[in-house]
Amino acid sequence: MKKFLFLGWLLAAASLAACDKDNGQNENEDGACPVSDIELPQSSEQSPIEPGSTIEIRGNGFEADCEIWLFGTSRTAGVQAEILDVSPSAVRFTAPDLSGPQSIELRQNGGAWRIGTLFFSEEEVPSTGILPRRISHIRITYPNDVSFVQQFAYDGQGRITSITETDQQYAYPGTTAQDEVTEISYEDDRIVITEPSGALSTLTLSNGRASAIIGTALNDHYPDDYTFTYDANGYIASSTWIQNPEQDHSAKSIYTVVDGCLTQVREAEDSEEWYGGNASYTNNPEQPNNLNIDLYGISDFITTTDLDRIYLVGAGGNRLKKLPASVDYGENGIDTYRYSMKGEYISKIEIEEDGELLTILEIFYED
Predict the structure, then answer these.
(1) pLDDT tens digits, residue range 150-194?
(2) pTM of the entire structure?
(3) What pairs with residue 170 in β-bridges?
């Protein structure tokens, strides 16, 4: 996560006047803000809000269904605050783990209104020090089988908006394939992935993290459904897969993350069938997960978890800190990872299965 910039000319104290049509503030397509005489607690660059503290916003007209969302310029989506209690004259919530100036949005009765800005502590949100150059494309090769290129397009915030699979080259003569494009769109509370077939995978966001993926079928393509949970430190804790369209099969995986590194994946005892099974991860201490695209989001990098979609779009909770040196699948063999570097950047990854070359990923960057 990039560090938020402090803008000295923003509010030194966030005590606001009433949000109504008379003063022209906080009116949008949903009409005038229903809460009047709003007062935010004072905060500034010199006196910031600390994550984990209790914040109280006063006013007249809060309702039981109200929500507080916070938006910073370098986040892929807004963060919903944990509401502690609501009365007609005040709402209290826990300050999320954020940094820098945050625009505050009130939501209730189906409407949304920006009601001011709060300054959070200048201390940087824990990060993995993401490198600035963007991946332009990755050539993925399965020796003696197929190779293809994944090209990435980005929006102004650095989020992936499309992935084009192109330049398919098969080892078998006479086999061809057309380019396939996956499109990704972002909203405050969801991310929608449109498959090449037109089918949809909709990620539901809670506090900026994917809690579920719901598949919408089209043209006989049935994206599967998933649910996700996270541990107290914000890392992935479990995933549940539900097969479409009949939904006759499902399975649950449990993830163990130690010091920000994935160490184990195991099948839950109540899982209905084997799905990825159990795996032990040995992480490479010299190989940080610090490219602009989270490599755990590339399905051809790790093929045995349900995490590629949520990590690809930055919605999988805290990013895992290290990349694997090996993954031990027990009776199903051991995958080992070899990384080639150009300076700080990974240029090639070779994955071997029990000593035999399985996959090659060649990574190319924008100028």
Answers:
(1) 999 999 889 999 999 999 888 777 777 789 999 999 998 999 999
(2) 0.66
(3) 146
